[in-house]
Amino acid sequence: MEIKAPEDERPQLPDESIPAQFSRGRVTVKGEQAPLLYEAGYYGTLKNGNKLILEPEEVLLLVRRQRIQVSDSKGTNFEFADLLEQLGERHPGLWTRFLVYSDLRSRGYVVRTGYGKGLLFRVYPRGAKLNEATAKYFVCVISEGVPLKVTEIETFSKQAKRNRKKLMLAVLDRQGETTYYLVAPADIVAEK
Fold first, then answer.
1. Is this structure's pTM higher than 0.85?
2. Which of 43, 84, 158, 179 is surrounded by the most beta carbons within 10 Å?
3. What does the pLDDT average to over 148-161?
4. What is the pLDDT of residue 186?
5. C-alpha to C-alpha distances, 57 to 24, 96, 101, 130, nearest whole angstrom
6. 122 vs 80: CA distance, rounded Å
7. What mean pLDDT do residues 141-170 have?
């Protein structure tokens, strides 16, 4: 007797790139392909059922994977480097966030934008259904060599605990490799 694994219920994306519009520093997908892209990978924020607003990290990943083709109102197509430059002007630190976002996605996690300052991403379990599952982790992105105060980690840890999440530090080294650390709550008390 052969047991089959349950099929993924998410729709499959078409082979050709989905058209996306770059305007005023934002990238959107409109029309019938907007909900398709949202449901296939849980990208962006779906408005009115037919307008998908993508986060900068999502745009870069989808362009790199050739899932969307971004153009402006004049019909000029943007390549990955063009978008990185354009979006990076409005979103400092985009390259660092993109590397971590891309790494988490490549590991099969559903990743959504963060939860306030410093907690850049919410990470859902592999195979999660976005409207049914809850995020398991809050992710704080740190670049190697950039100092981070213990009080900041404490603040992030408390925020994660209040929201019943685990805090994960994503440390990006100088070669672009990411190492993840789970932060366990601890009380630090100075002796008098």
1. yes
2. 43
3. 88
4. 64
5. 16, 10, 7, 18
6. 24
7. 90
- The residue extents of the domains of the chain are 18-90, 94-183
Look at residues 83, 179, 92 and name the one whose alpha carbon lies nearest to residue 140.
179
> Distance between terminal CA atoms of the chain?
68
Which residue in this structure is represented by tokens 């672009």?
Answer: 176
Side-chain-facing half-sphere of 170: CA atoms under 13 Å: 23
Q: What is the largest CA-CA distance in the chain?
A: 68
pLDDT above 80 (res 166): yes
Do residues 21 and 45 lie in contact, with contact meaning Cβ atoms separated by under 8 Å?
no
Distance in angstroms (rounded) separating the CA atoms of residues 46 and 139: 23
- 189 pLDDT more than 90: no
The CATH number of the structural domain formed by 18-90 is 3.40.1170.20
108 conformational bin, left if phi > 0, alpha if psi -120 to 50, beta if neither: left
Question: What pLDDT score does 70 carry?
Answer: 96
Continuous segment of H or E residues that includes residue 172: strand 166-172
- Dist CA 11 CA 61 (whole Å): 19
- Short-list 146, 147, 83, 161, CA closest to 115: 161
Residue 124 above 60 pLDDT?
yes
Partner residues linked to 162 by β-bridges:
none
Q: Which CATH fold would you assign to the domain 94-183?
A: Trna Endonuclease; Chain: A, domain 1 (3.40.1350)
